[in-house]
Design a protein that fits this description.
CATH topology of the largest domain: Ribosomal Protein S5, domain 2
Number of domains: 2
Low-confidence stretches: none
CATH class of the largest domain: Alpha Beta
Structural class: alpha+beta
Number of helices: 5
Distance between the termini: 17 Å
Order of helices and strands: EEEHEEHEHEHEEHEE
CATH superfamily of the largest domain: Impact, N-terminal domain
Oligomer: single chain
Amino acid sequence: MGENIIIKDGSGQIEEKKSVFIANIKAVHNEEEAIKYIAEMKKKYWDAKHNCMAYIVGDLKRFSDDGEPSGTAGKPILDVLDGRNITNAVVVVTRYFGGVLLGTGGLVRAYQGATIEGLKNCVIAKKCAGITAIVKTDYTGLGKIQYAAGSEQVSIMNIEYLDNVTIKIVCEEEKYNVFINKVTEMTAGKADISDVEKVMFYKSENGIEIL
């Protein structure tokens, strides 16, 4: 399973028995950026009872309960990031106490719930091992290749219209052979495949970025 990164930061808020939990989530490149962001959030929400956090940067994982009972805040936040294979991200969940005790189970659910709500408002990209290639065809083959790409979740990066059509594609490594076989079959072997390269890329709802 490929790593996931955040390409657009986000926040979310939930309420649990009158306590308000606000999650702020940011992409970071190193531990220094994570620590700086945590400090910024603690300053912003200086009047809150707790500012609990977790971050993952590469192989480094850190979390803090910030005064909540041990194991009820920081680790549950971290578990959400781990469970979704998200790396290079920091989460700060701020709690404004509403006067009602939630118990350990209630706290775990609330801190995880706020984190999940915040992630809903982020844009997350998946890191994939992939292949890029150039497919050349005549104009009658274009629609067939576009259909094959759509059915096999292959992304068309660029199309050049000259005497023939030149199409640059990128896809996850395991999808490549099925796609090429389908293209060969649908065009009766008339499509020319070249410039095949292995790449790493990020895929999100915003599109694809080749690394």
